[in-house]
DNA sequence: GGCCGTTCTTGTCATTTGGCAAGCCGTAAC
DNA sequence: GTTACGGCTTGCCAAATGACAAGAACGGCC
């Protein structure tokens, strides 16, 4: 596995040149996860700023009743880490789990911070990643409030069809904010009839 | 109006000393808004990194059916700006509106960026603000999925009772993801009988 | 191959929430 | 004062979604 995808990902934001991307990528180490392996567990402090090169992952948390609720899905080519735990150095409430065998590139908090201090362009990149995640979550929240479950499912199908190929439907259901039974009926096309 | 609250707010994150806070705060300019005045309108680029010293505000957006949906409330002592529009320099989808007469301290994007480049401790502060907002939104999303409307209302009442004193209930309703009729029934205590 | 556990679907019924429309009430305008 | 408007509540009914349980389908494992 080469660092090609990682370098390309760094460049794509526009803040980082090819030469810089190579130097930055050099700081990342390979990280593998077998299917069902955990990148992060609740109670621990997230210490991987992880670029997913191949595979598929999800984040989830248990609510007060003990229900497993999916909070995010990650396809190859995305950054995977728990923002609050990683940057605040606090125990995570979430788990991050490999849904397939995964490989990617990882850097620890200390190293990332050193890079941020040394490289203005990488700081910009880091901020852009935070902003992107934040904006995506806001969109999802707005949809949760204004769209019905069936419409949210359709939108997901359109925007990230890969999810349906890798994640069990019950995880998709909790991500969408419905029960697995309801999702099953939505998929059938007749939510009642 | 003095910059006392702003300076205190800067210090409270732990990254910034009193002396630094004074220097940083010196870069902020006063900004007033009459009740119903707009800090930001959809289509424009957010260019105020605004510390709300006194007053109460809300952010909202129109969904595809034209419904006014409240996306956030802001009490005095909070930072008010639209993250994606401000940092990406893209047109905002949201409005930010004064619910009461407001005053606070504002800095523009260019100036903020200059400060970020010049002052590592302020960068840390800025990142902490992003992370805080992100984490809050994640919590809200989890509650939206796992808690019923009545429970979400109770939680809001417990965590931010000021909102109920300043915002019309229909705004609170859309923030919670319910209709104003439903909120009315929830408040009555008997969501049906 | 046969067993077992998980996932997914489906039926039945209850609960939650929404859509309307009417009415009440307070405030602002004239 | 009277009028007009917006905000809030409430009744009635419909739609959306959940809870629970049974059974089919599938995959891993011995």
UniProtKB/TrEMBL annotation, chains A, B:
<protein>
    <submittedName>
        <fullName>Cyclic nucleotide-binding domain-containing protein</fullName>
    </submittedName>
</protein>
<dbReference type="InterPro" id="IPR000595">
    <property type="entry name" value="cNMP-bd_dom"/>
</dbReference>
<dbReference type="Pfam" id="PF00027">
    <property type="entry name" value="cNMP_binding"/>
</dbReference>
<dbReference type="InterPro" id="IPR014710">
    <property type="entry name" value="RmlC-like_jellyroll"/>
</dbReference>
<feature type="domain" description="Cyclic nucleotide-binding">
    <location>
        <begin position="39"/>
        <end position="116"/>
    </location>
</feature>
<dbReference type="InterPro" id="IPR018490">
    <property type="entry name" value="cNMP-bd_dom_sf"/>
</dbReference>
């Amino acid at each position: 596995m080469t660092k090609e995808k990682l370098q390309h990902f760094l460049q794509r934001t526009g803040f980082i040149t090819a030469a810089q991307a190579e130097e930055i990528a050099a700081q990342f180490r390979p990280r593998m996860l077998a299917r069902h392996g955990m990148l992060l567990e609740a109670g621990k402090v997230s210490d991987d700023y992880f670029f997913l090169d191949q595979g598929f992952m999800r984040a989830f948390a248990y609510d007060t009743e003990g229900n497993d609720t999916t909070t995010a899905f990650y396809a190859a080519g995305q950054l995977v880490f728990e923002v609050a735990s990683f940057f605040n150095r606090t125990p995570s409430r979430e788990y991050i789990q490999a849904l397939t065998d995964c490989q990617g590139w990882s850097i620890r908090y200390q190293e990332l911070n050193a890079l941020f201090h040394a490289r203005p362009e990488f700081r910009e990149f880091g901020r852009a990643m935070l902003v992107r995640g934040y904006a995506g979550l806001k969109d999802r929240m707005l949809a949760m409030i204004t769209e019905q479950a069936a419409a949210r499912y359709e939108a997901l199908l359109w925007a990230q069809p890969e999810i349906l190929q890798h994640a069990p439907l019950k995880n998709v259901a909790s991500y969408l904010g419905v029960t697995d039974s309801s999702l099953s009926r939505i998929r059938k096309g007749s939510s009642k009839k």
